[in-house]
Specification:
- The chain is of the alpha/beta class.
- It is 47% helix and 21% strand.
- It has six helices and seven strands.
- Strands 5-4-6-1-7 form a five-stranded mixed sheet, sandwiched between helices. It has a two-stranded antiparallel sheet with strand order 2-3.
- Strand 2 (59-60) and strand 3 form a beta hairpin.
- The chain is globular, with a radius of gyration of 17 Å.
Length: 154
């Protein structure tokens, strides 16, 4: 029993290190909120971000924000769902569907690669998305409006 338990711990530890290698080259992965450089606001609270991505209208400086879901990697998607939305993917999609039918909200765009996120943010002045800080640093021309999650802040 003890050997099996130790083996399970080692297996999970190995998965943990492999999973975080997907988060860029950083030793400590950090999920940042990014926006078009022309936005007039400088920050969003985590509550505002959560409401925005749950389909609840969020307005900053008189402009309605547009959520852009970045599903460019499985780990990024999981961190977003667990640390920002606090829901499983199934419950999150159910919640969005409910708001779509009940209030007539449009569903947020899903972007499956970093290039699509970059293009969407460039053409959507009030667009807000998230990405690893290492990716944001490589791209360089977006405004970082907050840190959504950091492994070291757990």
């Amino acid at each position: 029993m003890r050997v099996a338990f130790t083996g399970a711990i080692l297996l999970l530890a190995g998965w943990h290190s492999v999973a975080y290698s997907d988060a860029g080259t950083e030793a400590e992965p950090t999920l940042v909120l990014v926006a078009n450089p022309r936005v007039t606001f400088k920050t969003l609270s985590i509550g505002e971000v959560r409401r925005l991505f749950l389909g609840i209208p969020v307005t900053k400086d008189g402009e309605r924000l547009i959520p852009l879901r970045n599903y460019s990697s499985p780990l990024l998607k999981q961190v977003f769902l667990q640390k920002i939305i606090f829901m499983s993917e199934r419950n999150y999609e159910r919640q969005l569907m409910h708001r779509t039918f009940r209030f007539g909200n449009s569903r947020s765009e899903i972007l499956n690669d970093t290039d699509s996120v970059v293009q969407a943010l460039e053409k959507t002045v009030n667009g807000v998305s998230y990405m690893w800080s290492s990716d944001a640093a490589k791209i360089g021309h977006f405004q970082i409006i907050g840190v959504a999650w950091s492994k070291s802040a757990q």
